[in-house]
């Protein structure tokens, strides 16, 4: 087993971008995670998705050609926005700003523009964007979309972006996924107080209410227990 190479905890403080976990990387498009030479068995998304029925998975796969390029592009736009505004390195901010202008001129602008213009980004300090994280004990990894500190209350919030196809599209429960990322980060000394989902629809961006750390972790514990009972019964 590959051993952790950090010598001190990765801490969160206002205005401080979280340092990457040394040696952790993701290979795409297969979305596999490695820590050094260690390949992780499953992702947080894989654990949560394992509870879906064959019928539900078939429906998801049937529309992949629609939602996958949309989700990829809108996520890139959010990452570029956050890097251009909050990343500590000027060169990184400049590159992200250039990428953002390119994305805004392409497809999915109806999803991107409301997300970029939302006043939420004036009310927080972002400390992470598209951050990979992992846990060797449970042999799992994942990437969450952003983490930020709210100016009004000082809460540290882990958030994930979801794109929906229509203005009236309904949302769904995301607490287990948020809790999964919280659990992974806790193994590296990074703690969040709450979770939040960002819903991007054409012409609209909305932020969910804050979900407490406890309810996110409880939902994740239930999802993890179900996964273990199906795939790790030994």
Give a verbal description of the structure.
With 234 residues, the chain is α+β, with helices and mostly antiparallel strands. The protein has helices at 44-49, 54-62, 64-86, 90-104, 109-117, 175-186, 213-231; strands at residues 24-27, 32-35, 38-39, 42-43, 124-135, 140-150, 156-163, 194-201, 204-207, 211-212. Strands 4, 5, 6, 7, 8, 9 and 10 form a 7-stranded mixed beta sheet that branches. A 3-stranded antiparallel beta sheet has the order 1-2-3, with no helix packed on it. β5 and β6 form a beta hairpin. α3 (64-86) runs antiparallel to α4, α3 (64-86) runs parallel beside α5 (109-117) and α6 packs across α7. Residues 1-9 have low confidence and may be disordered.
List the keywords:
single chain; 234 residues; alpha+beta; 3-stranded antiparallel beta sheet; 7 helices
Topology:
Layout: E1 24-27, E2 32-35, E3 38-39, E4 42-43, H1 44-49, H2 54-62, H3 64-86, H4 90-104, H5 109-117, E5 124-135, E6 140-150, E7 156-163, H6 175-186, E8 194-201, E9 204-207, E10 211-212, H7 213-231
Parallel strand pairs: 4-6, 7-8
Antiparallel strand pairs: 1-2, 2-3, 5-6, 6-7, 8-9, 8-10
Helix pairs in contact: 3-4, 3-5, 6-7
Number of helical regions: 7
Arithmetic mean of pLDDT: 89
Distance between the termini: 20 Å
How would you sum up the global shape? globular
Q: Over the alpha carbons, how many angstroms does the gyration radius reach?
A: 18 Å
The percent range for helix content is: 25-40%
Please state roughly what percent of the residues sit in beta strands, choosing from under 5%, 5-15%, 15-25%, 25-35%, 35-45% or over 45%: 15-25%
